Amino acid sequence: MRKYVVILSILILGFQNTSAQEKTMTLDLLKNQIVKKFKSAKGEFALAFKELSDGSEILINEKEVFHAASTMKTPVMIEAFKQANQGKISLKDSILVENKFRSIVDGSFYSMDIGRDSGDELYEYLGKMRTIRQLIYSMITVSSNLATNIVIEIVDANNVMNTMRDLGAMDIEVLRGVEDMLAFDRGLNNTTTAYDLMLIF
Question: Angle at the Cα of 18 (from 14 to 22), degrees rounded to 5?
Fold first, then answer.
């Protein structure tokens, strides 16, 4: 069965001019409509919503664990910006673009498949230099898996995990880069919950 995670961490401006009681009623109505919609569709769903002006929330299966897919790129970006802020790396640093990565299972090499990567323009730079800032841009803006794996090698997945815990995201797991099929086959996957994604966003 397919699983879906919905992360809504947005300020609803229309709520600003409503009373606390009206807002509660509106949020309850919204939650009921969302639950009804989820029940009418196939799959498993989770939702985490925070109203930023007062912290009120709608949480539905918010601790359900899902395969992180590309949502794990946000924790990687957070760690890259953190390390840049600490002076450990510079976003202006140039990195050689290579399509060669080590599996977390046994250290064997694997490569990304351009046919499975939405950020295919980065493959034009194989053997050339790109800045960390450019790699992060490709990772987030066009969801480049190649850029993601390069950035993870720079910042280290263990550091990503430590930062997530420091932020209070206790369930999200960023173990590895993308397309490490040996790890996938052994169940060593990046996972997340709607609640943790809401928290870090």
Answer: 115
Residue 121, CA atoms < 13 Å, CB-side half-sphere: 9
What is the model's pTM?
A: 0.86
Q: Are 68 and 172 in contact (CB under 8 A)?
A: yes
Parallel, antiparallel or unpaired: strands 109-110 and 66-67 = unpaired
CA distances from 128 to 99, 112, 152, 169 (A): 11, 17, 18, 36
Q: Residue 154 — φ and ψ, nearest 5°? A: -70, -45
Residue ranges of the chain with per-residue pLDDT less than 70:
1-24
Specify whether the CB–CB gap between 132 and 157 falls below 8 A: no
d(C-alpha 37, C-alpha 189), whole Å: 29
What was the pLDDT predicted at 20?
Answer: 63
Q: How far apart are alpha carbons 72 and 18 in whole angstroms?
A: 35
Helix axes 73-85, 145-155, angle to 10 degrees: 40
pLDDT score of 99: 97
CA atoms within 13 A on the CB side of 89: 22
Torsion of CA 139, 182, 98, 114, to 10 degrees: -60
